[in-house]
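Minimal example, chain plus 2-acetamido-2-deoxy-beta-D-glucopyranose.
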Amino acid sequence: MARRSPRAALGLPRRFSTSSKPVLLSLILLPSIIVTIFLHFRKISYFLRPIWDTPPLPFNRIPHYYAENISTDHLCFLHGWTLRSSPRRVFDAVIFSNEVDLLEVRYHELLPYIHKFLILESNVTFTGMPKPLSFVDNADRFKFATSKIMHGTFTGPADPGFYKVPFQIEGMHRSAVNSLLRDSGILPGDILIMADADEIPSRHTIRLLQWCDGIPPVMHLELRHYLYSFEFPVDYSSWRSSAHQFGPLTQYRHSRQSDIMLADAGWHCSFCFRSIKEFVFKMKAYSHADRVRSSSYLEHSRIQKVICQGDDLFDMLPEEFSFRELIWKMGSIPKSASAVNLPSYVIENADRFRFLLPGGCLR
Ligand SMILES: *[C@@H]1O[C@H](CO)[C@@H](O)[C@H](O)[C@H]1NC(C)=O
Ligand SMILES: *[C@@H]1O[C@H](CO)[C@@H](O)[C@H](O)[C@H]1NC(C)=O
């Protein structure tokens, strides 16, 4: 196709007639376009996600009913279920990295309703970095639940060649949880929660699972998603945690296992750490560690600024499957001033958990 200048396109006389001009222009323009694409490849490909990626199949969401001081009998009835004569036993199984504060919040939230807390931790991250056993190091903080906790350790080899594919290492952790489960005394019909430590179901959700007959054998738990603290609510996109009536085929997983999801069943607080040091560790450790593209990403002053502004730690665009959602979510997360409907332990100990509450972004 012949090149036409904008002026020519508008029917205006050409100002320049030198034929070397377009060649020169493309010599400068083309490389700079290529460099730009190279530098911003991730951003551009994320922006174009609605074109190259298909969204997961939508879930069939069970409406969730709850208000204070309503009888469990009535709550079961509203879901189309019936009250049992005795509660089911509930087992809570998590893979733990370094979310010590959130684990404490989790165990206090769930303690009265849980038969056993299974927790697996490793002396190596998914990316092969040696790591301290943070649960063991902080065991004092979990004395209140000791009798219910079953702790397992996954020991990864020191050989870095072993850690080429972080998602595979993550898979090995999950099978280690399966063997912990086999030793836990869990029986068919018991409830098993599969979640990461920072995916916290609410008490009343567990009560419902415990006391109602007729619940689906496997369902995902829809959690309110927060980033950095409860001051930054993102959306309701967290779906990976799940609740199972344990059976012979139950396998510990953190992926799609059912099309059914119970709405608004708790909280998922990502990167909700007390200190910047913990942010840096998590950024280097988690399955998407390749997103740390330069060491400046790990500077404490930068991280602090990002936290207080509700921006993205990795300078990434949101993962969305439609342009409408993507553009809606671009930019900083608006701050919330609500500390209503949060885990009780955070409110009871608001002074200790200031960093999780509105106005507490300074670490
Ligand atoms: C809770 O419900 C009971 C009866 O179901 C009622 O007697 C009591 O006053 C209620 N408490 C509150 C705080 O509303
Ligand atoms: C993890 O612990 C095991 C057993 O103590 C040890 O052999 C291994 O080298 C440790 N891994 C790392 C990465 O330190």
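DSSP finds 13 helices and twelve strands in the chain. The chain has a mean pLDDT of 88.
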